[in-house]
Design brief:
There is one protein chain. By secondary structure, the chain is an alpha+beta fold. It has 2 helices and 6 strands, in the order E-H-E-E-E-E-H-E. The protein has a 4-stranded antiparallel sheet with strand order 2-5-1-6, with helices on one face. Strands 3-4 form a two-stranded antiparallel sheet. Helix 1 runs antiparallel to helix 2. The radius of gyration is 18 Å and the shape is elongated. The two termini are 19 Å apart.
Length: 131
């Protein structure tokens, strides 16, 4: 492969999904390390983590700071992005759901999407081999 070139077929002409899934999960920040350890134990080899703010059913809350009450409209969360082989996706989702659960409002959400293609930049490996 030429330096800087994209493997032929990577941008949409390969079989859709190629058996790779993107799992996006939002969880409470204090659950991050526990979730990471559980995912490592089931075979997840990497993930991307982003600190985010958002709201759902709880629509924020109020806090008292130095005697004044403030509305907190966006709640701190952590977003996990994990790409796994299709066969591992259900186990990853159930592991996140079980480990992140506190049974209180704001535990988070999990979304699963098909990945059309993936490329490991260093080696040029594609799809499942790129994970």
């Amino acid at each position: 492969m030429e330096t800087g070139s994209v493997p032929e077929g990577l941008c949409g002409t390969t079989r859709k999904g190629k058996n790779v899934k993107l799992i996006i999960a939002t969880i409470k920040p204090f659950k991050l390390e526990e979730v990471r350890e559980a995912l490592t134990a089931v075979g997840v080899r990497g993930m991307m983590v982003t600190e985010i703010k958002g709201f759902g059913l709880q629509s924020g809350h109020t806090e008292i700071y130095r005697g004044a009450e403030y509305a907190v409209n966006f709640v701190p969360k952590v977003k996990l992005e994990i790409v796994v082989a299709d066969g591992l996706a259900d186990q990853v989702v159930s592991t996140i759901a079980r480990t992140a659960k506190t049974e209180k409002i704001g535990d988070g959400k999990i979304f699963v999407l098909d990945v059309e293609s993936a490329l490991r930049v260093r080696t040029g490996e594609v799809n499942e081999d790129a994970l």
